[in-house]
Design brief:
- The protein is mainly α.
- The protein has one domain.
- Helices cover 74% and strands 0% of the residues.
- It has 4 helices and no strands.
- Helix 1 runs antiparallel to helix 2 and helix 1 packs parallel to helix 4.
- The longest helix has 25 residues.
- The radius of gyration is 14 Å and the shape is elongated.
- The two termini are 23 Å apart.
Length: 87
């Protein structure tokens, strides 16, 4: 599922950041962004999911929050681009 793809991208990013090789920040940001877009299209958080499986909705919200922090850091600190306040 899309959640696992996004989690995998975030974990890969963590592993990559701990390495010593030079980093392609634009490629990293693009990979995480694409995984998030797929997650956002595929995974519901509100409505029925929130009422029937609130723990799943909470987990998905947590994943959104982590991704937001990661993308903001990549954009602002590594690429020098201001991150949008909202989409």
């Amino acid at each position: 599922p899309a959640e696992r793809l996004l989690i995998g991208q975030l974990m890969d990013l963590t592993d990559y950041l701990s390495g010593t090789e030079s980093k392609n920040w634009l490629k990293l940001a693009s990979s995480v962004s694409n995984a998030f877009e797929q997650f956002y299209r595929s995974c519901r958080i509100w409505g029925e999911v929130k009422h029937q499986t609130p723990r799943l909705a909470q987990a998905r919200l947590g994943l959104v929050g982590v991704t937001q922090v990661v993308l903001r850091s990549l954009l602002e600190e590594q690429l020098g681009v201001p991150a949008p306040g909202e989409l």
